[in-house]
Write a structure and sequence with these properties.
Blueprint lengths: L2 H32 L15 H9 L4 H12 L2 E6 L2 E6 L2 H10 L6 H4 L4 E2 L2 E2 L11 H15 L1 H4 L3 H18 L6 E2 H18 L12 H18 L10 H30 L8 H11 L6 H32 L1 H14 L8 H5 L2 H13 L5 E5 L4 E3 L2 E3 L4 E5 H6 L41 H18 E5 L7 E4 L1 E4 L4 E6 L8
Parallel strand pairs: 2-9
Antiparallel strand pairs: 1-2, 3-4, 5-13, 6-9, 7-8, 10-13, 11-12
Helix pairs in contact: 8-9, 8-18, 9-13, 10-11, 11-13, 13-16, 13-18
Bound molecules: protoporphyrin IX containing FE (HEM).
The site of protoporphyrin IX containing FE has 23 residues, from helix 13 and helix 18.
Length: 505
């Protein structure tokens, strides 16, 4: 061996040792900063609690199941280590109020900066969901809040009805009590078509047959979104290059399509054509009034944000609702009775009629308590912060798991039981309103809550008006975590037309 080679080897070993010592020191300092907080012991110095989380996921659970399990032994406030990153988990309702509402904490930069682009392709960009600059977010939110106000959304009641009718017509074709309907696929198509129509006046065609190309590409983009959020290694894995390329192409297609819609609308407006006050119209007015805030790119970011925020969330909620009703025949019958008695067979369900269905409201709330499809959210401390008597260092991510909070025995009585009555105004069971916040709370609360509630209630009421259904047997209750919470088997049902529907009294 030449002297030169030995010297070279010596340098390589010394540099590697220096790197190792620096990394060990960094990990050690990171852990030390949080050692005063409660939490389970780390599985490993390097990966922290990742092995335990991976074990739960390998057994068919989601990360939030691990969080819920941990809360049984470590309480409603604890720290978790994900590699060198420490996350403070907050499941205590009073602390959640502080994290989401009163404490004025911004969204976590580490988490939300990853939602702006997927594999380098701009996706949600700097729209409401991914905007981490608070000043810019406030400006956008202030403008969009107007469009999503309940009184504004009410004017779309006829479109919500029209789409629910298209959906029942679609179901009729297969309602022979022996054809399996994958309700999640069907609801996904419905919510995508409805969003495009109500928000952008775009007709995506029939619910039967092949998907519209935008639906197919959007699905691909969403798969990439979920993959990037759940496993950052997908972005660098050389064997995944084809997947990354397809996702990038899909995103370019979807953004290009939305951009073209905006151009076409401009031309049509110049020609004096009539348009409803849809979201696109509203967005384009904003651009004229505030050209420096609402650039073309920011507007496109928000178009995609509303589609992403509104489509799978509502579709999954409706599937979970059918699943829970199918497994709880008494609740099913009670809901059907309420709809028969208050709405009967009317063909257009107005918002006044929807307000006459308190049990439907309770069923929706209880469904979202058990399956908060948005799962959770993250905020960040900008200075050292005292939360519930625990000192949290500046720059820490605080995770609120809606799923684990509303399933924790400390927060809700008999939490795994489906009991819509617990949301009755006179219920003897009292729990904090921060024990179940599926639409989040505080300034970042879901902007589309009213939109989702109206859409879901009209669609479910129409299904119950027209059909009886039962779950296909042998389906698992396993959950999948694909950016939103999903039923792995998609909630398959058999439908049959109802024989008689009594008139509303
Ligand atoms: C059952 C249906 C829905 C559920 C459970 C849900 C849940 C949530 C949750 C938990 C958040 C807060 C996320 C966070 O704090 O990071 C959120 C935010 C948001 N949602 Fe929804 N959502 C639903 C439907 C919708 C609909 C229909 C739309 C639009 C058409 C929408 C648009 C948004 C937007 C834009 C945000 C970001 C708000 C902001 O940060 O200013 N969502 N949603």
């Amino acid at each position: 061996m030449s002297l030169l080679f030995v010297e070279f080897l010596g340098i390589v070993v010394a540099v590697s040792l220096c790197i190792l010592v620096t990394v060990v020191w960094h990990f050690h300092r990171q852990h030390q900063k949080y050692d005063h907080l409660p939490g389970p012991p780390r599985d490993s110095f390097w990966s922290g609690h990742i092995p335990s989380i991976a074990k739960v996921m390998a057994a068919g659970g989601i990360m939030d199941d691990y969080v819920l399990e941990t809360s049984k032994t470590h309480g409603l406030f604890f720290r978790l280590c994900l590699w060198n990153q420490v996350v403070v988990v907050v499941l205590d309702p009073d602390c959640i109020k502080d994290v989401l509402v009163t404490g004025n904490h911004p969204k976590s930069k580490r988490i939300y900066s990853r939602t702006g682009s997927i594999f380098g392709a701009r996706f949600l960009g700097q729209g409401l969901e991914s905007q981490i600059d608070n000043k810019h977010w406030i400006l956008q939110r202030m403008h969009f809040d107007q469009w999503f106000k309940p009184n504004f959304i009410r004017q779309f009641a006829s479109e919500f009805n029209e789409f629910a009718d298209c959906f029942t017509e679609y179901l009729e074709t297969y309602a022979d009590n022996k054809t399996e309907i994958h309700t999640l696929h069907s609801f996904n198509k419905l919510t995508m078509h409805l969003l495009y129509k109500v928000a952008f006046n775009i007709d995506m065609g029939s619910l039967h047959g092949e998907n519209h190309p935008v639906v197919t590409k959007m699905k691909k983009a969403l798969t990439g979104f979920a993959a990037q959020l759940s496993n950052p290694l997908v972005a660098v894995n050389p064997f995944k290059w084809r997947f990354r390329r397809d996702v990038q192409k899909a995103i370019h297609f979807v953004r290009g399509n939305a951009r073209q819609e905006m151009i076409d609308r401009n031309v049509a407006k110049r020609n004096g054509d009539y348009f409803p006050h849809d979201l696109l119209e509203y967005i384009m007015d904003l651009k004229e009034k505030y050209p420096s805030v609402m650039t073309d790119d920011i507007l496109l970011d928000n178009v995609l944000t509303f589609i992403l925020g509104g489509q799978e969330t509502s579709a999954n909620t409706m599937s979970f609702m059918l699943d829970l009703l199918g497994r709880n025949p008494e609740c099913y019958k009670k809901l059907q009775r309420e709809i028969d008695e208050n709405v009967g067979a009317v063909s257009v369900i107005s918002l006044n009629e929807i307000e006459k269905l308190p049990y439907l409201d309770m069923v929706l709330k209880e469904t979202l308590r058990l399956y908060p499809v948005g799962k959770g959210t993250f905020r960040e401390t900008i200075k050292d912060y005292n939360l519930g008597g625990h000192l949290i260092p500046a720059g820490t991510d605080m995770m609120v798991s809606f799923y684990a909070t509303s399933r924790a025995e400390q927060n809700v009585r008999d939490p795994t039981k489906f009991s819509p009555e617990r949301f009755h105004i006179d219920s003897s069971e009292k729990f904090s309103k921060y024990a179940s916040t599926p639409f989040s709370a505080g300034p970042h609360t879901c902007i589309g809550k009213k939109f989702a509630e109206i859409q879901i209630k009209i669609t479910i009421a129409k299904i119950m008006q027209n059909f009886d259904f039962e779950l296909v047997t042998g389906q698992s209750c396993d959950l999948a975590d694909n950016a939103v919470l999903q039923a792995k088997d998609g909630v398959k049902c058999f439908f049959r037309p109802r024989e008689t529907v009594s008139a509303a009294s």
